Every structure is written in structure tokens, then in C-alpha cells.
Amino acid sequence: MPEKSASNLVAEPQSPPKIRSPKRPAGTLYRGNEGMWSWVLHRITGVSIYFFLLVHILDTALVRVSPDAYNIVIDSYKTPLMGLAEIGLVAAIGFHAINGLRIILIDFWAFGAKHQRTLFWVVIGIWLVLLAGFIPRQLMHVFGG
Amino acid sequence: MSTAVADKKPAAAEEIPTFTATLIIRRFDPDVDEEPRWEDFDVELYATDRVLDALHKIKWEQDGSLTFRRSCAHGICGSDAMRINGRNRLACKTLIKDLDITKPIYVEAIKGLPLEKDLIVDMEPFFDSYKEINPFLMAGATKGGKERKQSPVERARFDDTTKCILCAACTSSCPVFWTDGQYFGPAAIVNAHRFIFDSRDEGSQVRLDILNDKEGVWRCRTTFNCTDACPRGIQVTQAIAEVKQAIIKGKP
Hints:
Organism (chain A): Salinibacterium amurskyense
Number of domains of chain B: 2
Number of domains of chain A: 1
Low-confidence stretches of chain A: none
CATH architecture of the largest domain in chain B: Orthogonal Bundle
Low-confidence stretches of chain B: none
CATH topology of chain A: 3 helical TM bundles of succinate and fumarate reductases
Strand content of chain B: 5-15%
Oligomer: heterodimer
Distance between the termini of chain B: 55 Å
CATH superfamily of chain A: Fumarate reductase/succinate dehydrogenase, transmembrane subunit
CATH topology of the largest domain in chain B: Fumarate Reductase Iron-sulfur Protein, Chain B, domain 2
Number of helices of chain A: 5
CATH class of chain A: Mainly Alpha
Cofactor (chain A): heme
Order of helices and strands of chain A: HHHHH
Largest sheet of chain A: none
Shape of chain B: globular
Distance between the termini of chain A: 67 Å
Helix content of chain A: over 70%
Radius of gyration of chain A: 26 Å
Keywords (chain A): Heme, Iron, Membrane, Metal-binding, Transmembrane, Transmembrane helix
Number of strands of chain B: 7
GO molecular function, one term (chain A): electron transfer activity
Strand order of the largest sheet of chain B: 2-1-5-3-4
Number of strands of chain A: 0
Order of helices and strands of chain B: HEEHEEEEEHHHHHHH
Largest interface: A-B, 30 and 33 residues
Subcellular location (chain A): Membrane
Mean pLDDT of chain A: 84
Mean pLDDT of chain B: 91
Structural class of chain A: mainly alpha
Radius of gyration of chain B: 22 Å
CATH class of the largest domain in chain B: Mainly Alpha
């Protein structure tokens, strides 16, 4: 920030010195590589899983309050919309789990740090295989009746 | 190569081909601007020119108010780290011809440190965390009062992290550092690594304790932005991982 010169120490009532705290201007996007985007995905999936678990603990705890209320809530999950949301849930947990193993390898194995980019695509590969196995079955389950 | 070319008399010096590149620079004048603004410049350049030469041409020929830091201009002083096309690079080590000149070249200040003017940021928070890790040899008197001996193998252990020039390209590429300025940042950890794994140093336990802090190495999320940004090719994330392991083991 510009330093106020000594002349400003003399009182100038008509024009108070404009002192602004250094503000952080709005940022622009950093173009990171696989490592950064895997971290972004890891964070997004992690937060989503956290909120899912929150709801999941609440609806499971409901059985202690009232079994009828529990049944109503569980029945409301048996809609096609929730069936599709379950695909998102499995995708999020799958990525978070496999990428978590990648991060462990990076932290504890020099080979992992050196080949993190390859490992990221291995993670994506395993994840896609997982989804390829799950999504058709889930869609049959939801829409097959 | 044919020898026929060598027989001919060299023709008069040919005009060295030039090309025009467009630079879009994120300008910020704290006295005038509320927010930074993008400004375009067309510059005539040679194939041997670097981004720093383009900035010089703009400053010397088009707009003298363009503000940026540079000192040695040869990748040693670490003054001119900036974001070029969205990635942290040294302007003096980035050749224009290596960038895609059919598109404009975006140049902006490094991220996460307070922006002062144009491409200049306040580096004090960066150097503060560097100072905190005791970046100097901590050792008592030598045995016998002579030199501290070190084998080539022991020297090689920390060779990679001796190359740091403190340009802040790594620290300001770190997503954790952008949102949490308290994090030590890759550069400080790299320079701690340089002494932690130095066989002559006796203060590694002190440094490991400092970095075992909440804002220490455990904030690293292994995004590898720092390794990609480092103009000296230091395996930064690898070095951080080694410090993490040293903390777990309790010794380097």
C-alpha cells in the first residue's frame, strides 16, 4: 500500500487521508493439472458424503422414535429421483475411496509422488469400471419395476 | 546438412523474423482502481524473446506505468514469478514461442498474497513463514574444531531442495495457501527440508516440531500445483511428503 508522506501528518480537516486496508482483489482461476482437479473432486465428493451421512444418521435414528415415521421416510426414497441420486452417491463414495488410496500412496511411497499423474488416471479407470458395473444394474432396478 | 551451403558466401544479414503477440495483463493501481482490470498490449517480438522481454517492451515503449519486479532476468533471483496463462512461471524463463501465440497471453500477479500494484504483490507474509522454520544451519561447535564432514551420499539426500530461489511460485500456486494464509506454504517446507535432511544440522527436531503444527505440513493436500510451478524443477510435493514421514517417524 502507498505510504502516506510526512506532509499528511499535518492535520487536514477538509480532506481526511484516504486510508484503505489492503483488500484482496477478486481472484481468477488457476489452471492446475490433474493433481489440483483431483483435489477439487475429492473435496466436493467429501463434503457431499458428509451431508449424506448427516441425513442418513437422522433417518436411521428415526426408527427409535417411531417405526411408522421411519417407514414413511424410507418409502419416500423409493422414487426414480432418489434412485438416480443413489448413482451420484455411489459415484461420489467410489471416487473418494479410490482417490483416498492414491493420496495415501503419494504420502507414504516415493513412487506414488513421482507417478501421481498416472495414478490419477488409474483412479479414474477403476472408478469408471466400478460405475459401469453399478449404473446399468441400478437403472434396471429403478426403472425395470 | 549439405556442404554446398558452406561454400557459398554468407548473404547479407537477413532480417530476423518477428511476430506480433498480444499480451493481456491484469493491471491494478491502488490509487485509482477498486478492482483489477485487464489491459491488452500488442508487442512485436523475436522468437528468442521471453515474457519478460515482452513486458520490458511494453514498459519502455508503450506504457511506462506498467509495474513488475525483476532483477537478474536469468532465473536466479526469483523476482519475476507471475501467473502466465493461468500458471505460475518465471517471466524470464518462459519463451513466448513456447506459448500458443495464436491466442492472447494472459499475465497476472501471483495469487494468495496481497496485490500491491499491477504484477507486484506483498511478499512479507511469504518471507515471514520462511523465517519461522529457522532457515540456517543449527549446529554446535565442531568436534575437534575443524570442518564438518559430509559424504557425497549425505549431501545428495537434500540436494533437490537446495535449489530454491524463493520466488514464491510454489506457495502462491497452492490452493490451501490461497484460502488460508497461515499455512507455511511449500517454499517454507522445502527450505526446512533442506536443513532437516542435512547431516551436519542438529536442529531438525526443532523444525519438525514447528512443521507438526496445525498450519504445518498436514495442511498439504498433495495437489502438485507447487511441483508443476517450481521454475527450478524441485519435487516440492515429494519433499513435503518426506517431511511428513520424518514427523511420523520422529527423526529425519
